[in-house]
Amino acid sequence: MRSFLAFVRKEFYHILRDTRTLLIILGMPIAQVLIFGYAVTNEFRNAPIAVIDQSHDELSRELINEITATGYFNLIEQPPTTDQLDALFRSGDVKLGIIIPPNFEEDFFRQKLTSLQLVADGSDPNYATTLINYSTQIIGSFQQRYAGGPARYQIGVETQLVYNPLLINAYNFIPGVVAIILLLISAMMTSLTIAKEKEMGTMDLLLVSPLSPVTIILGKVTPYVFLAMINAIIILVMGYFIFEVPVVGSLVLLFAFCLLYVLTALSLGIFISTKAASQQAAMMGSLFTLLMPSMLLSGFIFPIDSMPWPLQQISKIIPATYFIELLKGVMLKGLGREFLWQPAVVLAGMTIVLLLLSWVNFKVRTK
Amino acid sequence: MNGIEVENISKSFGDTLALDALSFKVAQGERFGLLGPDGAGKSTLFKILTTLLLPDAGRATVAGWDIDKDFKEIRRHVGYMPGKFSLYQDLSVSENLNFFATIFGTTIKANYHLIKPIYEQIEPFRDRRAGALSGGMKQKLALCCALIHQPKVLFLDEPTTGVDAVSRDEFWAMLAQLKDAGITILVSTPYMDEAERCERVALLQTGKILALDRPQTIVGNFTEPLWAIRADNYYQLLLDLRKAPFSQRVEVFGEFLHLTARPATTGEEITTYAEHCGHGNILLKPAEATIEDVFLALM
Fold this sequence. Notes:
The complex is a heterodimer.
Chain A: H1 2-17, H2 19-39, E1 47-53, H3 58-69, E2 73-77, H4 82-91, E3 96-100, H5 104-109, E4 117-120, H6 125-147, H7 170-200, H8 202-207, H9 213-242, H10 251-275, H11 279-297, H12 309-316, H13 319-331, H14 337-361
Parallel strand pairs in A: 1-2, 1-3
Antiparallel strand pairs in A: 3-4
Helix pairs in contact in A: 1-9, 2-7, 2-9, 7-9, 7-10, 7-11, 7-13, 9-10, 10-13, 10-14, 13-14
Chain B: E1 2-13, E2 16-27, E3 31-35, H1 42-49, E4 57-62, E5 65-66, H2 71-77, E6 78-81, H3 93-103, H4 112-122, H5 135-147, E7 153-156, H6 165-177, E8 184-189, E9 200-205, E10 208-213, H7 215-220, E11 226-230, H8 234-243, E12 247-253, E13 256-261, H9 267-276, E14 283-286, H10 291-298
Parallel strand pairs in B: 3-8, 3-9, 6-7, 7-8
Antiparallel strand pairs in B: 1-2, 1-4, 4-5, 9-10, 11-13, 11-14, 12-13
Helix pairs in contact in B: 3-5, 4-5
């Protein structure tokens, strides 16, 4: 026990004295949250749009006012012809064009069919779809108001998005960032620090000592459990105060799941380090086998349901997939243990298998 | 009981045979030197005896324990100083020493008497990071760390490589002091002149022992006539002497060439030959054999 504590203390010295790495470890979650929160987002404000008003009557002006008043759109120019709209799309100055046909008001009030044309820049499909949806919604409610209620045989659709009614992006990326950062610290940093002992030759000295392999491994990873949990707290607090991401469910359960995931990631890191002889090998190993798949295939960035079958299978062996499910369950849906035991059991199972594999692979002798 | 017993140990890496059926014994408390150039197999032997590596064939014991079966006991009771400086560079002198004392379940205080003469020299730098120490200081700290748990056997793999002459001398003096503690020491070095600091030495070359005895005996067994010679054109003299009918071996040895001549060759014969080849300022004198001469003769 005394030697274990001495080991942990030594490990803390390594971490605290390597200021550059420490800054990266503590700065990374903050940077990631801010980047995902402000730069990588599907939400939009002040989207540049152009309106071609071929009618120039009372109603068309009302509609234009209605659209610009929402704050989502920024009317940049009123080109008289469709040719000029093309040029604006080409230069990228406009993302959405609304074309109001001649005799708009007249057609509308005579109950004749009138139609608007929406043109969006499809080179960014997600953005285009969002713009079309927003503008269709605004036009729809505008129509209802002026037509005096819905028309007789019209089906009025009211959508409601549960758990995230305003479609706030942060509800998705905060759990995702927690999953990535914890993986980075737990798996990558531990595999790096163990590989470093091998590279520096100090692993030989540790092996030629009464320390058991279990003490060596536990001593190395314990400080990283602390670091990982501190980072989890930083991200969740930032999410709560800056992006107003709530924690509907139990905080205790939330941290229990974080700890479970940290343990899974640590055992992954330990497993990688039993295979990697150098820091570089450990780095490459964790970047390509962990980080990339966890970002892309865990449901953090792309929804799993829309992936082709083989990728869906891969997503099933990625710990982050289950952790994100747990986090969203607790934070957004307020689910309890009875609903979340399944992904939790999967994570626990992965941890045990990885630890057993590392146990088999740990070399009490070197090469 | 012997400190170390090695019986027919062999080890190869791929096609390279690093150790070729090596056998020797080191008495308890003996200071035993392994001499040999880089690639002779010294480090491989150290790794096998410290249980970091298993041999392909043969068996060995350290302080009576088998290197395969009892590896845990051996790890508890030996001190190992690898060839490459392997302490924590970002930890201070005293932190390193404390750490190694603690993982061996002891304290600096308990075994201070063992390391005192060495530690006193690095004590002024006790708060300095190990990475910022000079080469000689690093070696002294590494020795302290290897000694702090009072090992039965001490393995020092090239402890004086890359260390200045004065520090090397001090280092050997410290090892001599450890004799009183009854610690068996196996030490390797590529420097032939350090052989005399050991009680017995083994000359190692490509995994084989060429000679094994007390250094004086090894040198004493060298009976061929040995001459030291130099002239104005050093390199041309080397080439000419190698072609001379009376020469067995000519080796570069500082400012002189060491010429091992065939028996019954006179000094006059050599001088005449050199003059005949057109050399000026010839200086010839009989030379005392060193371990290096023996080694080169055996190779």
